[in-house]
Amino acid sequence: MVIPGEAPFLSSASLHGTADQTPCRILLVDDDNALRRTLPHVLAQEGRSFDECPNLGEAIARLERTRYDLILLDYRLPDGTGLDLLDWLAHARRDEAVVMISGEDAIDAAIGALRHGADDFVRKPYHVAQLQRAVHGALHKARLEQSNQIMRQRLQRSERLHRYLVERAPDLIFTLSPDGLFAYANPRVESMLGYSGEQLVGKSFISLVLDEDVPRIEALLRNTLDGQRHGQSAEVRLRRCEPGTSRPGASLVTVALNVVAIQSQTRDDDPHRPPDGVYGVARDISERKRAEEIITFQAYHDQLTHLPNRILFKDRLELAIAQAQRRGGLLAVMFIDIDRFKLVNDTYGHAEGDHLLRGIAGRIKQTLRKGDTLARLGGDEFTVLLPDIAQPEDAEIIAQKIQRALDEPFDLRHGNFLATVSMGISVFPRDGEVAELLTQHADIAMYQIKRAGKNGFRFFDPDLNAHYRERITLENDLRSALANNEFELHFQPQISLSKRRVVGMEALLRWQHPAHGLIAPTAFIPVAEEVGLIGDISRWVVDTAAAQLARWQGLGFTDLRLAVNLSSQDFDRDETIDRVADRIAHHRLQADRFDVEITESVMMRDTAEVMGRIRRLRDCGVGISIDDFGTGYSALGYLQKFPVSSLKIDRSFVTGLHAPGANPIISAITGIAHGFGLHLVAEGVERADQAARLQSMGCDIMQGHYFSEAVCADDAERWLTHTEHLLHHQPS
Questions:
Q1: Domains with residue ranges and CATH for the chain
Q2: For the whole model, what pTM was predicted?
Q3: Per-residue model confidence as pLDDT tens digits over 374-415
Q4: Between vectors from CA 109 to CA 108 and to CA 114, what angle results, nearest 5°?
């Protein structure tokens, strides 16, 4: 770190040590040639080197080029005196030690030399030992001075460094007296709390603490001063200075406070002596606390309406149930669904739909009591918690208020919209004693209103609930099916009659229920779509199918195609689409061997989002097959707009192959496929005559029980391997 204003620092390399053997350069300045030749021998020691010059001018020239540890300087020189050289050294701020050697008898010469900065004065004639002592003393003195200078610089540097770190620290650093008064505060206090350091000196730290936090912080400081030498820490809210005054105001700063006792470090100190004060560091965490509050709010609230979300609603409902159980009271749960909300989204767009949701939420909230909770579960579904009701009819009164609140139409950008809602009500403990059951029963009652014509409310009726009880049981079992590894993929081969081999497999989902055995997808996929589990199930299907195709390709079946079925809801979000591309890349599959089957209902939605997700699949090489083609709103325009790669003739056409009008439909589908250059597969082939008839009509690839039923992966693999792709059945 470079500290502004820092002076150059002498390294230990510039200190030549304390022993005479340390490398040392000596300059001899004397006009006596014999003396210049003799002195290096007289003063010779290991590590010493000598340079010599006869006059003042040459000495200065050498000194301008070289630094010396010692100068032996004659008083009388041909071009001046030794005093002149001493003056030059002083002016140049040089620190060489100087021993003046002179034949002058007058004491004035010695005094003048010492006053001009010489370290010693030796009068000629001199004894060799006297000169050696003078040289040794001058060098020793110079080394001590250099050592002291280095120590001073180190201390000054350390002091500057610590001052720099404290004064420019991003945290508030302060000290308190034993009485809890500010003794020092670094400049950070001004930007953090609005005070200057001088304003705080002598002010009580507690005076800045929010009243609610005072007892806790007083205890913290007391513990610190009572000898708890380990650091004390806490989060505390400090009051900023009121503008234009030196008084604490209403504005708060949340800080992470750490304090330690200040103990004297002198040797003779009593270890039990009370601390001299408190050293503290306060870090501003206001932004972090605000971020935490935002994150917490987002975790428990709906982002569109700012109402409690499903998680918070469940927490409040569970708490209300516990309180009702203790008091023997009642509570009600309402499940509210907006009628015809999809019409608004589809007609006016999601922005208008969001505007309507906020408006409906606001009106419903106005009808509720202070202790009631309105939550948005997602989409157009809301729930209401009515705690502490005296009788079930109280919930009916609230439902009627909600209906009246919606009598006034909502002003949307494209016109007015009269919104209605369907409401189901369940009552604790009559309709359930746990949160999930109460919510489910309210949901069931709401669906009964939906089926009865919408725009109303109904209490949960257990006598009409046999179907819903089965559905709830199925839903609960379905929620644990993934975790319990109860799903399986079965595979049905797709046969090319012309090539006389298997060209593809369709992956078909099965649920191996622990009590009911193997369940077909038609029995549970609609439930999974309703309760929001379809995304997880589809991801499992994609993962399992991709891994199985990778295994078969590894066994040599590189031309084999594999088709998986996705729900129309999977095209409402990116997750499952991303999963397909990710699994293909992960297993290094040939992407054009992996097909995704969609229904015509997906194409009918024809939104930019749906189109974009289908194109993303095609862009990474995945095939798109339209399942049950011809049974819905088939339109040739969709085949041009959507990047389709395959069509599947529905089994209903194959079953009625000999019925009047069936052949033209199949011929038309076959012609469409050939015209658009699409793969064509007929499903539901049960008999040899059906296979032969389809082949004669131009459909080469087919699947059905005539060839093989859907079997587990091991059986499919054995079927592939043992038959070597050859057919045992041939159409007659």
A1: 12-159 (3.40.50.2300), 170-291 (3.30.450.20), 301-464 (3.30.70.270), 491-508+534-723 (3.20.20.450)
A2: 0.44
A3: 999 988 999 999 999 999 999 999 999 999 999 999 988 878
A4: 95
C-alpha closest to that of 707 among 718, 719, 699: 719
* Buried b or exposed e, range 116-127, using 16+ CB within 10 angstroms: bbbbbbbbeeee
Pairwise CA distance, residues 238 & 255, whole Å:
7
Whether the Cβ atoms of residue 372 and residue 387 lie closer than 8 Å to each other: yes
At residue 352, the 3 state secondary structure works out as: helix
d(CA 184, CA 257): 16
DSSP string, 144-187: HHHHHHHHHHHHHHHHHHHHHHHHT-SSEEEEE-TTSBEEEE-T
Contact 91, 64 (CB under 8 A): no
- Calculate ∠ Cα 484-487-489, nearest 5°: 150
pLDDT tens-digit series, residues 248-294: 877 889 999 998 888 766 545 566 677 888 889 999 888 888 888 88
Most confident region among 112-121, 572-581, 703-712 by mean pLDDT: 703-712
Of 532, 529, 612, whose CA–CA distance to 567 is shortest? 529
Report the alpha-carbon distance of residue 111 to residue 89 in Å, rounded.
18
Left if phi > 0, otherwise alpha if psi is -120 to 50, otherwise beta: which for 447? Answer: alpha
Q: Provide the 8-state DSSP code for 656.
A: T
